[in-house]
Fold:
Amino acid sequence: MAEKKPTKVEDAKARSNQLRGTIAEVLADGDAEKFEHDDIQCMKFHGIYQQDNRDERKGKDKHYSFMIRTKCPGGRMTAEQYLAQDAIAAQYTYNDSLRLTTRQAVQFHGVIKGELKTTMRALNQALISTIAACGDVERNVMCSPAPLGDPIHRQARALTDEVAAKLAPATGAYYEIWLDGEKVDRGEQIVEEPFYGESYLPRKFKTGVATPEDNSVDVYTQDCGLITVHDGEKITAVNVLVGGGLGMTHRKADTFARMGSPLGSVAPEHAADAVKAVVSIHRDFGDRTDRRHARLKYVVDDRGMDWFAEEFKRRVDFALHDWVEVGPLQLNDYLGRHAQGDGKYFYGVWVQNGRVSDFEGGPRIKSAFRKIVETLRPSVVLTPNQSLLFADLQEADIDTLEAILAEHGVTKPTDINGTKRYAMACVALPTCGLALAEAERYLPDLTDAIEAELAKHGLEDEPITIRMTGCPNGCARPYTADLAFVGRKPGVYDIFLGGRLAGDRMAELFADSVPDGELLDRLRPVFETWAKDRRGDEALGDFYNRVFAGDELRTKVTGAKENPSELRVLEVVG
Ligand code: SRM
Ligand code: SF4
Structure:
């Protein structure tokens, strides 16, 4: 059989001269409206996506602009950095908004080509980088966002920063192109990327650090998930999971969402090197001939954990110990006021689908946040649920903060009920080029309708993770949710049920290709039986899983199923 060839993206990376390509030249060419294939791939490593806003298309003519994504380990930033981003959004985005992402970063949409460099420089002046926010490298490293003053959390944050630093790309291309840095003389064959090499990784790589008290990073969905083990004062070991990932393709059973598998545990001082060793296995064994099969999860799934553990041990000079049981994980969204553990306070504000904007006739979230930061100068932490914490506050600041929220029509975070507070949607239309259906712009209406339906049974305040994505790539991590909607085509969704708040079980495909007008009708029998037959305060996903899905701890799910599970519910409900 003929050997499969590396993908076009592999070729583009290899000939990019360590992420330079012709980006600088095309940028300087005022007549060029857009970048071409190789540069588009390269620019992702710089944190930039070329997009086509589908609302703005004129006939077949695409409307090009750029999305810039920041890299922000653990979602932390200073007041000054927040304000700089608020101003950048006002000046350079098409809709004056900051978009908080599911990986604790910020996206700016609709930046025009002529202002790309100025925007990048403005970010850099605020000491905000975008390098490796996208591309086939270690992406933004996530960390449970709080409580900030607690010693365990401090150590988890330090580990997050260590992983991010160890795996940052070393190329000087970013500084040359965006900051007019000195050019590296490639004639001397300088090896700029001793770890990544000329072709970087076969695909993106994601790492998240969880504590047993807070799995908001969805640790099982990361390529490499770390769970800290601690005695209350210090981290005593770090559990390592490998091979998680969510992207899949509709009806293709050889693509799947997968939970990370336990590799074992390592001493805390070796945890960052453990991640680096895992990344190196991806670099060396990931499939460079098929981007749909290139994530680490396929290496793990194809070769098995025994092979993986042996390969890992060959690459490190420290011990791999047994996995340490840490008990059930929890999800904490930290809304409202909390003590930080160091005498100060933090305050979590719910941001619906991460969109920080002044909504016409609705809450003026962007203005409220700006005023809070200008007045109180808090640190800011982005959460993995697309929300935001104001931190390092004095107790007396809380009243001021709540008054500013009220003044701008922002609902008090603790008044958000269980149906909505854990809900997330990806960006989808109009900017995402891969979107098949709406997500961010549709989920608010749908959660209103679900809330009203659940209220008939007094269940609207039950904590449920409801997640929606415009395609099966999984950007809002739908497959670990109690209830998820995954876009199939405009106005049509697959429904998944059976994950849970702890994020340690996959949902399953419940019904496929359901028109948006019928989503609620299809779910009504499940809600009714949940209300009637739940045990104690059994959550929606747990109930569904026990009664309809055989109480299975699913670790894998595909979007290809002959008989989605709705039939089982209909049989029971009659
Ligand atoms: Fe994502 C691609 C948005 C988190 C899996 N994701 C995209 C792109 C860049 C579309 C593209 O390639 O052209 C989307 C840009 C939309 C836009 O207009 O802004 C996009 N992903 C997002 C964000 C902004 C969703 C959000 O609403 O917050 C998240 C940015 C995170 C960040 O700050 O880095 C985002 N994406 C995720 C997650 C969740 C996570 O990482 O915790 C996943 C699932 C986990 C995983 O990676 O397996 C995810 N995004 C994907 C995939 C599928 C990858 C795969 O293995 O198949 C793609 C498509 C691809 O890479 O080919 C994708
Ligand atoms: Fe786009 Fe699909 Fe990701 Fe949503 S899940 S942002 S539609 S790639």
User: Anything to note?
Assistant: Residues 355 and 501 are 22 Å apart (CA to CA). The first helix runs from residue 8 to 14.
